[in-house]
């Protein structure tokens, strides 16, 4: 039985004081959660959020990590820096990073390996664009993204990775994949992992759905056999909505 995991991707929202206030509310509301709960604020908000969440059941995630340990990479953050700051998880390869910041399948793989090396737990995002879905190549796309993301990663490390299936056409658009569509693609991702590592690893790995998951549609999505949680965008910025989603992840 896989433990569900609900992670809030705050994207570029909230100042440090707003972030602290939001997690103060969230931690009260999700104190009785039976799933893993994660919030992923912007890097500058991490220290305050970590401080506010001390002693709670809510873990902190970053939204990106660089693949080198240090050096001339202006604006980047290394895994050991995040780790020392109290970060547990890190989102890698979100479609917004692929779309606006030149992230590729190869850099996703490098970042995933660097995160594991630093002792962080990667949340690796995959998902097809609208054109890819319309052309009937959703399966090929998520298979390719998954296979490259996991290149050179041992089965033991693979089990630490959470995969987030986020159809690009459902991100920030208010459009959600139907529970059937989401479950089907999560199943294809699990099959891909089975092809790479065998059934045991595939059954152990957690696959989230992301893409306009909200307080209204979460229960239906989370009831599907291949969906082990959610990576939540806008709804994670409201403590009430986020806690309803956490509650649905039993
Ligand atoms: C969304 O729901 O919009 C997301 O991108 C979650 O990562």
From TrEMBL:
Substrate binds at residues 9-11, 172, 212, 233-234. InterPro entries: Aldolase_TIM, TIM_sf, TrioseP_Isoase_bac/euk, Triosephosphate_isomerase, Triosephosphate_isomerase_AS. It is an enzyme of class 5 (isomerase). GO terms for cellular component: cytosol. CDD domains: TIM. GO terms for molecular function: triose-phosphate isomerase activity. Pathway: Carbohydrate biosynthesis; gluconeogenesis; Carbohydrate degradation; glycolysis; D-glyceraldehyde 3-phosphate from glycerone phosphate: step 1/1. Its EC number is 5.3.1.1. Its main location: cytoplasm. SUPFAM superfamilies: Triosephosphate isomerase (TIM). PROSITE patterns: TIM_1, TIM_2. It holds the Pfam family TIM. The active site is at residues 94, 166. It comes from the Bacteria. It catalyses: D-glyceraldehyde 3-phosphate = dihydroxyacetone phosphate. One of its GO terms (biological process) is glycerol catabolic process. It is found in: Cytoplasm. The keyword Cytoplasm applies. Keywords: Cytoplasm, Gluconeogenesis, Glycolysis, Isomerase. PANTHER family: TRIOSEPHOSPHATE ISOMERASE. Homodimer. Involved in the gluconeogenesis. Catalyzes stereospecifically the conversion of dihydroxyacetone phosphate (DHAP) to D-glyceraldehyde-3-phosphate (G3P). Belongs to the triosephosphate isomerase family. This is Triosephosphate isomerase. It comes from Ructibacterium gallinarum. The lineage of its organism: Bacteria, Bacillati, Bacillota, Clostridia, Eubacteriales. The gene is tpiA.
């Amino acid at each position: 039985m896989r433990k569900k995991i609900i992670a809030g991707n705050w994207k570029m929202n909230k100042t440090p004081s707003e972030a602290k206030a939001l997690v103060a509310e969230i931690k009260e509301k999700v104190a009785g959660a039976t799933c893993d709960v994660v919030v992923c604020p912007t890097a500058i908000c991490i220290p305050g959020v970590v401080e506010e969440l001390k002693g709670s059941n809510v873990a902190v995630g970053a939204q990106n990590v660089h693949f080198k340990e240090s050096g001339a990479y202006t604006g980047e953050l290394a895994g050991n820096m995040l780790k020392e700051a109290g970060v547990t998880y890190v989102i890698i390869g979100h479609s917004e990073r692929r779309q606006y910041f030149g992230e590729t399948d190869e850099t996703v793989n490098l970042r995933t390996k660097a995160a594991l090396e630093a002792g962080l737990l990667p949340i690796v995002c995959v998902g097809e664009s609208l054109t890819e879905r319309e052309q009937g190549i959703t399966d090929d796309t998520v298979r390719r993204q998954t296979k490259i993301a996991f290149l050179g990663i041992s089965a033991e490390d693979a089990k630490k990775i959470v995969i987030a299936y986020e159809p690009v056409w459902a991100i920030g658009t208010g459009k959600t994949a139907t529970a059937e569509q989401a479950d089907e693609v999560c199943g294809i991702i699990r099959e891909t992992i089975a092809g790479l590592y065998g059934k045991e690893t595939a059954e152990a790995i957690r696959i989230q759905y992301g893409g306009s998951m909200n307080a209204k549609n979460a229960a239906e999505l989370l009831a599907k056999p291949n969906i082990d949680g959610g990576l939540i965008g806008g709804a994670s910025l409201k403590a009430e909505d986020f806690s309803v989603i956490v509650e649905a992840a039993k």
